[in-house]
Design a protein that fits this description.
heterodimer; A: mainly alpha; Cytochrome Bc1 Complex, Chain C; 2 domains; 16 helices; 2 strands; 1% strand; B: 2 domains; 7-stranded antiparallel β-sheet; 4-stranded antiparallel β-sheet; 27% strand; binds protoporphyrin IX containing FE; binds FE2/S2 (inorganic) cluster
């Protein structure tokens, strides 16, 4: 009886095996690094990783989990596309078919829905973790900006996604959402018309949101994620305490010179993981990083599966333009926004979100404190940490109010009071 | 920067640096302008194609039955167009049920404020004025007229002030 490893070694040693993998199963550190750079998927990784970056407590794995969820969303999304026609006549029935007619259809739909919710959550938490560990400080300012773009795209992807079932939630979310766009100064009404492809939420609006959801936005996210991960590497791996103080080495010819290189690695920045550091702090990415990645993927998959087996994705009644449900609530991650627009559509729906976005983008360029990188809640960053926390707490409070304290006609209710049933 | 655009038929004689750089400048400018124009025009055309020229939507001007179909002292809801026809004696008005806040449909209820919006809680008075909530405006009144064959005609593209009523003597 041969062990899987022996079978693998045998196959990797054959002519065919060598043509595919180039190197066999690595036995030495050099071999491990060769494995990393000569494999398409693995070469996205550095050959060596700093110990600090490998620690779970440095990142909580949130960026990777976001990435995995996006991957799951792409796969389950394509599976769903086989059963979905983007037209008001069919869309709702397609959802019913997925539940009652298509084998494993409901699981696919559940996985897609719960992964989407989790992705919004994880991307947000990832942003918080990067903030609280000072991960956006030089040279990583721009990657934070790319991240902000990804955060917005994640939200827009969810938004365009839940229009597609053409149920009550879908219809009223799009009605309210596109009307918010209409409050933008000067071009608001034009944008609204363009988004809907008309004056009413109907056929052309559904088709437009569908194309955005299945092609335009995912393609944009793939591009941005590629840029994001590439930058993580070019910016010298993950931020960590005691990083050598930056950046591009000076040189006459404009070529980058480094005092120590591993021939396998392309070095574009003086802070690449292996430069100027005690190699003792670094471990080969194979197996240390790759193993953790696989483990994290399995964990993500397990959670999504668990949710999808026990909870079905909601589907409200068929869209009815004459009667919104009462109360008509957005999904949880937009309830903070809904609470804001319940005070004023212009201020809560346009001005506040726009200002927040500008503040997020400007943050790494405004915050000049250089200390505290790679440390959670560093004392030197007390002011920044407090301000950011206030924003997060405000967002959470608004969301909780919208979720639990708002009842019929968006009136205040106490969640523990008996629920009021409103006839439509 | 002087390679790349000498024409083969007229080999360029070596010239003093000045003339050369001016020629470069002109070509470069033209090249950039042409490229930007091509990009801009394609971008604009793509965007423009997404602005519909024809709308396959219900007509914004339509007939809404005979005046006698509406009982006195009521607000009748026409679902398909989200509109109330309000009759008081011989006066008729058409009031939109679309909340001016963010476009939900208001409910007609019995109570102090007869029109409530479920989405963010705007309340409206019987003649559509905002009583509370985030709506920046009252409900819209639409132009109402009588056609030759004696039907009410609503024009959703024309808003009127709320003292404009259609008076029909029975
Ligand atoms: C689709 C969404 C996103 C994906 C898939 C993603 C993925 C990743 C991954 C895999 C990492 C490596 C480290 C880690 O796992 O934490 C990372 C790092 C980073 N991310 Fe993201 N990210 C996303 C959104 C964001 C957002 C919203 C921000 C901030 C606004 C952001 C800013 C950063 C920064 C600055 C780093 C480097 C952190 C450091 O060096 O400590 N990312 N991202
Ligand atoms: S849509 Fe009516 S209150 Fe917001």
């Amino acid at each position: 009886m041969k062990s899987p490893k022996q079978v693998w070694l045998w196959f990797a040693g054959t002519r065919v095996g060598r043509s595919i993998f180039r190197v066999g199963l690595p036995e030495s550190n050099l071999g491990r690094m060769q494995a990393m750079v000569s494999s398409f998927l693995l070469h996205l990784h550095p050959a060596k990783v700093h110990r600090h970056s490998l620690q779970f407590s440095s990142t909580l794995g949130l960026g990777l989990i976001s990435l995995y969820l996006f991957l799951l969303l792409c796969i389950t999304g394509v599976a769903l596309m086989f059963f979905y026609v983007p037209s008001p006549e069919h869309a709702y029935d397609n959802m019913k078919d997925l539940e009652f007619v298509v084998s494993a259809g409901m699981i696919a739909r559940n996985m897609h829905r719960w992964s989407a919710h989790l992705m919004v959550l994880c991307v947000f938490l990832h942003m918080c973790r990067v903030f609280y560990t000072g991960g956006y400080k030089p040279p990583r300012e721009f990657n934070w900006v790319v991240g902000v773009g990804l955060f917005v795209m994640t939200l827009v992807l969810s938004f365009t996604g839940y229009l597609l079932p053409w149920d009550q939630l879908a219809f009223w979310a799009i009605t309210v959402g596109t009307n918010i766009a209409g409050y933008a100064p000067v071009i608001g009404k034009k944008i609204q018309f363009l988004l809907l492809g008309g004056n009413i939420v109907g056929e052309s609006a559904l088709l437009r949101f569908y194309v955005l959801h299945v092609v335009v936005l995912p393609a944009a996210v793939v591009f941005m994620v590629a840029l994001h991960l590439w930058r993580v590497r070019k910016d010298g791996g993950l931020s960590r305490p005691g990083e050598p103080d930056v950046l591009v080495p000076q040189s006459e010819t404009g070529r980058l010179s480094t005092n120590k290189t591993y021939g396998l690695m392309e070095l574009a920045r003086g802070t690449s993981p292996a430069v100027g550091l005690d190699p003792a702090d670094e471990l080969p990415a194979w197996p240390h990083l790759v193993f953790r990645e696989v483990l994290l993927f399995l964990a993500t998959m397990a959670v999504v599966m668990f949710l999808s087996v026990f909870w079905n994705a909601p589907l409200e009644e068929f869209a009815n333009p004459a009667h919104p449900p009462n109360p008509a609530k957005a999904p949880w991650y937009f309830l903070g926004l809904q609470e804001l627009v319940a005070y004023s559509a212009f201020w809560g729906g346009v001005v506040v979100p726009a200002l927040l976005l500008v503040a997020l983008v400007a943050l790494p360029y405004l915050d000049r404190e250089r200390a505290g990188v790679g440390v959670w809640f560093a004392r030197e960053r007390r002011v920044a940490v407090t301000l950011f926390t206030l924003c997060v707490v405000a967002a959470v409070i608004l969301t909780v109010i919208g979720t639990y304290f708002r009842g019929p006609n968006w009136g205040w209710v106490w969640p523990w009071a008996a629920s009021v049933v409103v006839p439509h | 920067m002087n390679q790349g655009h000498s024409s083969p038929s007229a080999p360029r004689a070596p010239q003093p640096g000045k003339g050369d750089s001016r020629r470069d400048f002109i070509w470069l400018t033209l090249g950039w302008l042409a490229s930007l124009f091509a990009l801009g025009a394609s971008g604009f055309a793509t965007l423009r194609s997404l602005v519909p020229n024809v709308l396959y939507e219900p007509s914004r001007r339509f007939k809404a039955g005979r005046p006698g179909d509406y009982p006195d002292d009521t607000a009748t809801f026409i679902e398909e167009v989200r509109l109330f026809i309000v009759r008081k004696g011989s006066t008729y008005r058409a009031m939109s049920a679309i909340c001016p806040h963010l476009g939900c449909t208001v409910n007609a209820t019995v109570g102090k404020h007869p029109f409530l919006c479920p989405c963010h809680g705007s309340h409206f008075s019987p003649d559509g004025a905002v009583m509370s909530g985030p709506s920046p405006r009252g409900l819209t009144w639409h132009a109402l007229s009588l056609s030759k064959d004696g039907r009410l005609v609503v024009d959703l593209d024309r808003a009127v002030t709320h003292d404009k009523t259609l008076v029909i003597q029975a």
